[in-house]
Amino acid sequence: MPTLLSAVVRVIVTRPASEAHAWCRDIEAAGHSTWGLPLIELRAAREVRALEAARARIQAFDAVMFVSPSAVHFFCGSASGARGGPLVWRSDAPRALVTGPGSFSALQQCGVPATLIDMPDASSAQFDSEALWQAVHRRIQPGYRVLIVRGHTAGEVDSREGTGRDWFADQVLQAGGHVERVLSYERWAPQWSAATKQQVELASRDGSVWVFSSSEAIRNLQVCGAGMRWDEARAVVTHPRIATAARHAGFGVVREARPVLAALLASIESLR
Asked: pTM to 2 decimals?
């Protein structure tokens, strides 16, 4: 089993680079060291025409569900590659639906008024599609039109198994609503140098705490670090589904935490 950690914990933040900075900053402010190791690379969707069409028709929807901060960034921001630059969210625009505070913050950065954003209650045990449905299901009536803005793993066929966005879409359809989907970004596995592989192998057994907010990040870690053992490694994850993926990958210790700073820090510090 791993040895006990010292008072200062090194935390490996595996979120995409565009989302990792804030987590690293806040964790370091709490007195720990961090290593930003993005396990998912994000790129704008190649199907720009479909994205542009969805942006142009945004007033045709009653609500737009964003599956992640990245979905917000690539749909609303200039990084989308769509013509016309950043999307202006008018006061009569559809409601924006998000599963957690990260996406809520991303929408506000894009100029979306907080009064137009729906998300699970701050005290919810989980920030996921199920919790979002509890927050908005009374609004979903026959004919209600929802656009789901999502990402896609490059080179893979989309699977509905275990995806919260598709569960949410099913609930909308069962309530008599209509659902459309559009890709705003693609997810790619990182490419590691020999030096990075050596650092990761060391981090698998040196007492670092790995933080995962995506099951796909764990899958990419297994591919990029093929042959590495994780039975001496410890992880903090932000959802039960991610916890299952971490245990299947062989992590020796797995803790679950809500994706808010206080909960993450409590779980990280419980591993000292």
From this structure: 0.83
